[in-house]
Automatic annotation (TrEMBL):
This is Methyltransferase. Coiled coil: none annotated. CDD domains: AdoMet_MTases. It comes from the Bacteria. One of its GO terms (biological process) is methylation. One of its GO terms (molecular function) is S-adenosylmethionine-dependent methyltransferase activity. Residues 89-185 form the Methyltransferase type domain. Keywords: Methyltransferase, Transferase.
Amino acid sequence: MSQDPVELTRGLLSQTAELRHGFLDVLGESTSAPVPTVAQRAMNSTFVATVYERVWRPSAFYAASGLTHRAEQRRAASALRLSSAQRLLDVACGPGNFTAPLAADLPDDGLAVGFDISESMLTRAVADNSGPHTCYVRGDARTLPFDDETFDAVCCFGALYLMPEPFRVAGEMVRVLQPGGRIAILTSYAPQAAAVRRPMTAIARSIGLRVFGRGDFVDLFSSAGLVDIEQQTQRAVQFVVAANPTR
């Protein structure tokens, strides 16, 4: 890529952004985010941002899904068809532990934009997971600062269950997806059986997490007109991928 990824990303933004600590910030010093839950406060912690990539997320998701971190990345790259994509948006990217590896699967002129609301996470992303095909943006995923149909690959891995308005965020992800583009999410899952679902939901709510059912995102994508929807469930995790039809 001959052009600076920061300047390329700045050209994609629909809002003015200040370059801070190596990432573009459309929020500035104040945000309209609601009072964070216990889990959300943890994800904004400098300590959690430091250990998240190397320790917490790989071990937590292996326990929840039975998949290694590298296996998750391979599945995501394949589902998103990154070898033929140009612009990838990684929503709630955290410290960039998915953004950077996925960027490596893009063509030589591709761009991966990691998006998050946490300054601590993005500071860690810039320090640990920057590269010639990556740029990080701070903003609120409930209102993505990009025009319609900006990206041909959009993903969110391990974060929707933390968000106060996850379906609004998913709708925004669909909005910025180009015709012919692909979307993928990895999030929580509880089986339909009440004996399992009820205690899982109660425990999750106690720390500010949300557990989703089998049809939640499948139905959302279908209602939005997406096609080729595929869902895989493993233990407490679901992986859903879909395509925006070509016009």
